[in-house]
Amino acid sequence: MVAWQEINHQVQSWLKEVRTMILAEMKQQQIQVEQKTCRTDLVTNVDREVEAFYSQKIKESFANSKIHGEECEHATGLHEHPGLFWLIDPIDGTLNFIQQEADFATMLAIFENGKPKLAYIYDVMHDELFWGGPECGVYCNEKEITPPSNCPLEKGLFAMGGNLVLHNRYNIQKIAQQSLGVRVYGCAGIEFTRVLTGKTVGYLACLCPWDYAAGTILAETLGLVVKTIDGQPVNMLSSTDVLVATKSAHKEILKAIHQD
Ligand code: IPD
Ligand code: CA
Ligand code: CA
């Protein structure tokens, strides 16, 4: 086992370097945008550079590591790997990064011997680093986060992925109507941080592993519920729909999803 403090010390220094790198590239207006699968699925040179930076640092510092990242390396066997397993989303909210220069994050989730170890969601423009894990609790920068209250759906704001709204999937309109109001921030990592801090009572979206791995570790550490829409535990390498919520909101949302 590697001491969490040792990993944390290294990772926090990499994150600061990444923030400096991103801000410098934004200032120099050196951002090149490319399409991946369609006109709304974009990647930039910064996404690729950041992921390459993390991969290099991980390999230099923690030799017995496997890496699963959005842009480059795709490892398998999370639960079988006897060492550290890293999930990387170099820039989460790339559309926000390109269009708004705000509300994007860089994220890392770390597992050891198949179990959650540490997670990081760094809101670059606000310089707010959400980090932690089961061994140390959850923090925003240096301040420990207390678990949010068990707020029900009708008394809280509910957030969702944009695609669910566009196609009214999972009875999303019904869930939205039961809530106090809806929010769509366009960055899964930032959506998770709003649930962690009690600003929203839940977030439902269709996502990839690098989008939800860090948020899931932090949310579960705080006693929030993170499940698929069938109420099953999230599989960190293969789930595609994820709901994070307070216990109370979670029950109400699941009920609404499966109503006719
Ligand atoms: C996206 C964002 C967005 C979510 C998409 C993700 P990316 O990540 O997290 O909020 O709705 O499903 O793909 O591609 O910007 O890293
Ligand atoms: Ca990304
Ligand atoms: Ca993402």
TrEMBL record:
<dbReference type="Pfam" id="PF00459">
    <property type="entry name" value="Inositol_P"/>
</dbReference>
<dbReference type="InterPro" id="IPR000760">
    <property type="entry name" value="Inositol_monophosphatase-like"/>
</dbReference>
<feature type="binding site">
    <location>
        <position position="91"/>
    </location>
    <ligand>
        <name>Mg(2+)</name>
    </ligand>
</feature>
<feature type="binding site">
    <location>
        <position position="89"/>
    </location>
    <ligand>
        <name>Mg(2+)</name>
    </ligand>
</feature>
<dbReference type="GO" id="GO:0008934">
    <property type="term" value="F:inositol monophosphate 1-phosphatase activity"/>
</dbReference>
<keyword id="KW-0378">Hydrolase</keyword>
<dbReference type="GO" id="GO:0006020">
    <property type="term" value="P:inositol metabolic process"/>
</dbReference>
<feature type="binding site">
    <location>
        <position position="70"/>
    </location>
    <ligand>
        <name>Mg(2+)</name>
    </ligand>
</feature>
<dbReference type="GO" id="GO:0046872">
    <property type="term" value="F:metal ion binding"/>
</dbReference>
<keyword id="KW-0479">Metal-binding</keyword>
<feature type="binding site">
    <location>
        <position position="92"/>
    </location>
    <ligand>
        <name>Mg(2+)</name>
    </ligand>
</feature>
<dbReference type="GO" id="GO:0007165">
    <property type="term" value="P:signal transduction"/>
</dbReference>
<protein>
    <submittedName>
        <fullName>Inositol monophosphatase</fullName>
    </submittedName>
</protein>
<keyword id="KW-0460">Magnesium</keyword>
<feature type="binding site">
    <location>
        <position position="211"/>
    </location>
    <ligand>
        <name>Mg(2+)</name>
    </ligand>
</feature>
